[in-house]
Amino acid sequence: MRPAHPTEQAVGIDCYVSDADGVGGRLRAADDQFRVRELERFDTEPLEASTDAYPHLVFRATLRGWDTNDFASRISDALGISRERVNWAGTKDKYAVTTQLFSVYGAEPADLPDVDGADLEVLGRAGRNLEFGDLAGNAFEVVVGDPERPANAEAITDELCEFGGLEGGRNANADDGSDATPIGVPNFFGQQRFGSRRPVTHRVGLEIARGNWEGAVMAYLGNPTDAEPEGTQEARAFVEETRDWQAALERIPNRLRYERSMCHALAEFEGEPGPEEFRAALERVPSNLQRLFVHAAQSYAFNRMLSERLERGLPFDRPVAGDVVCFSDADAPEGLELPDTDRLQRVDERRVDSVTRHCERGRAFVTAPLVGTDSELADGEQGEIERDVLEELGLEPRDFDLPGEFHSTGTRRAILVRTELGLERDPLTLSFALPKGSYATVVAREYLKVDPVDLG
To answer: What is the CA radius of gyration of the chain?
Structure first.
């Protein structure tokens, strides 16, 4: 198999599954060349419905140059309400054109402000606020900027069709006359999960799971990379060399507010900090970042397991004895394969053929663990892979029995993501839909085969 870019290998992605040369180029040359539209499953009542029973106003927003959190803050500030009264189902990047749902408790349509770079469409009312489970997936339209070998997209598509175990090739599943091709790619966690320019988030999480709080702090404060400004690199190197937390505050740029928060916590302590002080420093960062540290460690282990399965030549589109599969979500929007990881089944020799038929029809999916306290590992060769990776990383499921926001029970995740890909040639454009939690870059990387920084 073709080796992945070294930056991807650093986050557990060892190879590509397509051997054809990439088309080259880059993504997000302009915001309007990366479009994301949510695939929703959330019902609303008419605007005339009782505000007592349906107090949440629901609207769809198409945003240009807005991060989801920043846009929510803009809405709450304009309405003079708590930020907690604005909710959404999925977070989106600002360097794109995104279309997504929002709910606001206690608002009226006339209250909504005019916002530059945002088009709002009021949909109705709801009895509760939006939650993550209300997002089924996302539809993407991605333009490849300055491709060097655009004609190679055809060969890559054919290889991904074969990898996904999708019989019949082009247009096998398209009954609407479109030029869509069913493809499959490993369901890796994309580079964004770990930090596109400075992939250290998983390193912090691994040290947390190992109980090494000092190592976790230093993984975040230190580790200078060439992708950062020279002053930032020097500040990180200073912290590593001196552990002089007060002096470090004079060197760390103000924009690195989380690093500064950690240093402040350690500088306030009189004497040599121990595990409790280093843990307290980590807890100075927002709770969602604390969780992300551990989630990134789980994601790294997951990527390593998928890479090892590829290395061993085991299939992704169907099970082998010992695999654990999940079944599809019957409420998924039409045309979207959505795994339901609450419905799991262990596959023994007797069930391999019957479960394979379910996988071929998009009704079941082979999984690997996002390891946590409740994780039960697979049997057979996949079980060997899971145990080997955890041993290599010095981890066990019980290691995730952690305090506060760092605790994780774990879950399982499908190892293959399949979609129907629309391919336009001028400009080279990829159109596809993915279930929630899957990354557009895991599709795009197979086509471009470039430095992950150029994938945005």
So the answer is: 23
Q: Within a 10 A sphere around the Cβ of 438, how many other Cβ atoms?
A: 23
User: Among 363, 426, 436, which residue's Cα sits nearest to residue 137?
Assistant: 436
- How is residue 143 written in tokens? 């333009």
End-to-end CA distance of the chain: 24
Rounded Cα distance, 329 and 327, in Å: 7
What confidence tens digit (pLDDT) does each residue in 314-362 have? Answer: 999 999 999 999 999 988 888 899 999 999 999 999 999 999 999 999 9
Indicate the helix (H) or strand (E) that contains 37: strand 34-40
Tell whether pTM > 0.85: yes
Q: Which residues belong to the active site?
A: 93
Q: Are 186 and 305 in contact (CB under 8 A)?
A: no
DSSP string, 238-267: HHHHH--HHHHHTTS-TT-HHHHHHHHHHH
- pLDDT tens digits along 257-296: 999 999 999 999 988 999 999 999 999 999 989 999 999 9
Comparing CA positions, the residue from 77, 76, 126, 83 lying closest to residue 101 is 126
- Please list, in sequence order, all residues whose beta carbon lies within 8 angstroms of the beta carbon of residue 188, skipping any fewer than 6 positions away: 12, 13, 303, 306, 439, 442
Report helix, strand or coil for 310: helix
Distances (CA, A) of 106 to 56, 96, 109, 127, 134: 6, 29, 10, 11, 20
